[in-house]
Amino acid sequence: MKGQQLKVAVENEVLSISIGVDILCHACETGRMYGLDGIKITDKELFLKGMVLQLCREEEDGTTPVHEMFDNAVSQMLEDGEEGVDLKDE
Q: Which tens digits make up the pLDDT trace of 59-77?
């Protein structure tokens, strides 16, 4: 399972987002973040604990990076004219 590709699915009324830890670490090491050519993970367990903490880190209003991810996805759906979502009528 640690080599599982990114998977996003709805099964049994649950939205599930999963990725194997080896794939996640590889993606983070080879990705281009903040103008860098990648990073080096020196301690996988500590890195993964830190990743979880950051994804769950709450702002003053209670939002987390995961909430922002969902907000961005819905905004993109609206922009793309996806079916099943629309702006509220006032």
A: 999 999 999 999 999 999 9
Residues 27 and 60 in one domain: no
pTM of structure: 0.81
The structural domain count of the chain equals 2
Judge whether 86 and 75 are in contact, CB under 8 Å: no
Place of tokens 């080096």: 40
* 33 lies in the same domain as 63: no
The secondary structure of the chain, three-state, reads CCCCCCEEEEECCEEEEECCHHHHHHHHHHCCCCCCCCCCCCCHHHHHHHHHHHHHCCCCCCCCHHHHHHHHHHHHHHHHCCCCCCCCCC
